[in-house]
Fold these 2 entries.
Entry 1:
Amino acid sequence: MTVSSQASPAIAAAEPLLGQSLAQLTDWVTQQGQPAYRGKQLHQWIYEKGARRLEDITVFSKAWRAEIAHVPIGRSTVHFRSEAPDGTVKYLLRLTDGHLIEAVGIPTAKRLTVCVSSQVGCPMACDFCATGKGGFLRNLATHEIVDQVLTVQEDFGERVSNIVFMGMGEPLLNLEAVVGAIRSLNQDVGIGQRAITLSTVGIPGHIRRLAEHHLQVTLAVSLHASNQALRERLIPSARRYPLADLIDECYEYVNITGRRVTFEYILLAELNDLPKHAAELAAQVGGFQSHVNLIPYNPISEVDYQRPSDRRVQGFVDELKRRHVAVSVRYSRGLEKDAACGQLRAQRLEEPVIAPA
Ligand code: SAH
C-alpha cells in the first residue's frame, strides 16, 4: 500500500506510537528505510497483539529492533486491580511519569464497556464527585486514553464493545486528545463510534466544537439540577454557564450531528429529587431528542449527600414519564468496592497522585 507523506502528520521523534493511524505508522516505518508493509505489521502488533515494546515485535529484524528500541509504544502498567462480585474490575493505571489514573471494565451478558479517564484528576470540582476533591494535574495524551481500553480488553481476554468517557476528568477540556482517541479507538481498535459516549459537565462553546467534528458518538451532559441556582450549588463552573446556554448548545449538537443527547441527573435525597424538580427537569429537556439517565448518588466520604430510597427514585421516574420524558435509571456497577469515580485512587494513595516506581 502506498501512503502519501502529506496525508498525515509525521510522528515526531520518540513520540509514543499508540494512538497513531495505519497511515502514520506506515510513514514512520518508511522514514526508517523499511518497506511500507512493516507499517501494517506494526499496527497489528500494537493494536491486536498488545506489544508493549518495539523489541518484542519478533517479525522485525533484530538489527532494526535495536535501532528503534528507544521509541515508546506508550503503554501504562497496572498499579492496582480490584474486582467486585458483579465482575466489574477497577484498575489504577500507572502512567510513564508516575501519575495514576482509573479505568473500569464493566461486563454484561453481551457487552464489555470500558469507563475511561480523560485527565489526571479534574479541575471542575463538582461537590459530589471524589475526583473533583483531588484536584487537577494534567491532561491525558491520546495514547494514554487508548491504552486504558487495550488494558481492559487484554485483562478480560474479550473484545471491548462500548466506551464511556465517565472516568476521571472533563473530556471537553482535553478535546484534541479525546477526539484523537475516539478516532483511534474507532479505526485502529475497531469500536463503533455509536458505541462511544462522551460525558461532560459542559464547557461554554465546547459542545459546539465537538459537534463540528461530526462524530457519531453519544453526548451525555451532566445536568444534575433542574434549575440554575441548584446547579451552581453542585457544580461550581455552572456560574459561568447559564443552563439556558447549555441547553441551547445541546440543541445545536442534535441539529449538527442528528444524534440525541443524554442528560445525566444524579439523584440526591431531598435536594433535587422532589416532584417539583421532576417537573422543572421535564420542562428543560422536553421538546427535543433527548434521554434522561438518572444516577442514584454514589456516596463519597467527603460530603454528606444521601442516596434516595428506591421508592423515591421510582417516584421521580414516574413524574418524568407522566411528562413524556424518555428516562432510565443507571445504578453504578461494582458498588461494593470504591465504586464512585476517583475513590479508588484516593483510597490507595497516601500521597494523592504520584505512585512510587
Ligand atoms: N467530567 C465529566 C465526566 C466524568 S464524571 C462529567 O462530569 O460528565 C461521569 C459521571 O459520573 C458524571 O455524570 C458525574 O456527575 C457522575 N458522578 C460523579 N460523582 C458521582 C457520585 N458520587 N455518584 C454518582 N455519580 C457521580
Note: Residues 142-156 form the longest helix (15 residues).
Entry 2:
Amino acid sequence: MMKESVHASSKGVSTIGPTDPAYQQCIMPDCAATFSVDETYAACPKCGHLLDVLYDWDRLNVPRSLSAIEERWARRDDPRCFSGVWRFHDLLPFAPADKIITIGEGQTLLHPSNAVGRYVGMKPDHLFLQYEGMNPSGSFKDNGMSAAFTHGKMIGATRAACASTGNTSASLSLYCSVTELMKAVIFVGSGKIAVGKLSQALDYGALTLQIAGDFDDAMARVQDISRELGIYLVNSVNPFRLEGQKTIMFRVLEALRWQVPDWIVVPGGNLGNSSSFGKAFFELKQLGLIDRMPRLAVINATGAKTLYELYENQGLRWNDGHPDLATVDAYSQKMNAEGLRASTIASAIEINRPVNLLKCIRALEWMDGVVRHLSDQAILDAKAQVGAGGMGCEPASAASVAGAKLLVAEGVISPDERVVCILTGHQLKDPGATVAYHSTDQKHFEKVLGSRGVRRAAFANRAVAVSNDVDEIIKAIRLYS
Ligand code: F0G
C-alpha cells in the first residue's frame, strides 16, 4: 500500500507479513503493534506513541565484523559506498539498494583535539570531536534526511514538510533541490532561526512559512497540516530518519578502529540524535558486533531543559517500556500554566517539548546515561574554545563540550576515559552569535548576548583596529602576535 500521509488513518493500518525482515513497531511493549515499512506514520496509529524501524537480523546478511564494512571505502565510485550513511546499509536495511537516495552525506571526521581536551579537563589524546558540520547542508541532519528521502521514494511521496529550528529545514530544502523528488514546505518560528540556516532554505527554493510562534508551536502545526494535506513529514518522529542518524555512531567506531569509547556527549533538542545513538549501540550489541555500550550524556541549554527536569529532577525512567507518563503530562501542564517558553542563544536546541522524549529516556537506560544543562555563557565560552582548537561549530553543538567539561568537574567523567563530543552543526550556521561574542563593540555585545545572561567573553578574539598605514600595521602585528 502506497500512502503519502505520515498520519494515515487507522482504517488503513495493516500488520506486517511473515516475509518482511524490516518492519515498524510501536516502542511501547504493551502495544508493540507492527507495520510494514511501506507505510508511513508519525505515531503508532493504535496508541499514539513513537515507532521504531526494526529488523529480523537472522534473516538479513549482516557482516560478521564491523571492519568488513571498511572494504567499501575502496569503492568510492559507487555513491552508496561513498556515502557515510549507506556504506552501513547492512545496519539499516529497510530499503532495497536501488531505492537509496544519497547526495554524498556523512563524509565527516572524528577529530582528536588536545586543545579542547585541556579545556574540558581531559588527559591528552582522550577527547574527540565528531564534526558533523562537513555534511552537504552543514549539519548532522543530512544523515537522517538521506534515510527519510529513501523511504519517501519507496512510498512515492511528492511533498515533504518539517518544523525546524533551522537545520532540518536547510537539509530538507537541499535534498529537495538536489534530488527533485519532493517539494519542500518548512515551518519555522518567527525570528527564531539563525540567519545562515534561513538563507539556505530560501536559496534552495523551499516554501518557507514563518509561524507566529516558536519551534514548539511550529512542530504542533506541521503535524496537524501534514496529516490534513497528506504531506510526508521528515521531523524526527519519522523513524526512518533516525535510522540514518545511527550511522554517526558507526563512523565514530570506524574512526576509533572499532573500539567503543567511554562516553558519547551530545546536545539535546528534539532528542532524535540521542535516541538514534542508543538504538545504534543497542543493535550492535544485539548483533555481537561490540562487547559493551558507551555511556551517554545529553546536554540541554538551561533555557530549554525539559529532559533534565524530567530525568534528573523528577526521576522519569524508561523503566523497561513502562515510563511514568503521568509525570510527563504533569510537567507539560505546568509549562502550559506558567506560559513557559524555551529561550537560549543555542537556537537549534530551543525546544521545550521534545518529540522523542520517550525514545531518549530509553537510550539513557540502555547507555546508563546522564543529563545536564548549561547556561548560554558556558555554551558560548565552550564554542569559542572549539573554534580556537577545532573545526568550529554553532552554539548548540558546543553544549556537548560545555557538558563534558561540567561532567569532568563533577567527577562523573574521568580524565582518562575516552570521550566523544558530537559537533552537530557548522560554524557558519550562526555567525551572528559568534561575531557578537568576539565583538569590540560593547553595545553590540549587550544587544545580542546581554539579554541571554551572557556577561563576558572570556575567550574573545577581538579584531584590532589599525590605521591605513604600513608602520602602524607592522607595529600592531608586533604588539599582538
Ligand atoms: N544541534 C544542532 C545543530 C541542531 O540543529 C539540533 C536540532 C540539535 C543539536 C538537537 O538535536 O533534536 O536530535 O536533539 N535541530 C532541529 C532542527 C530541531 O529543526 O534543525 P536533536
Note: Residues 139, 141, 164-168, 236, 267-273, 348-349, 394, 396-397, 424-425 surround F0G (CB under 6 Å).
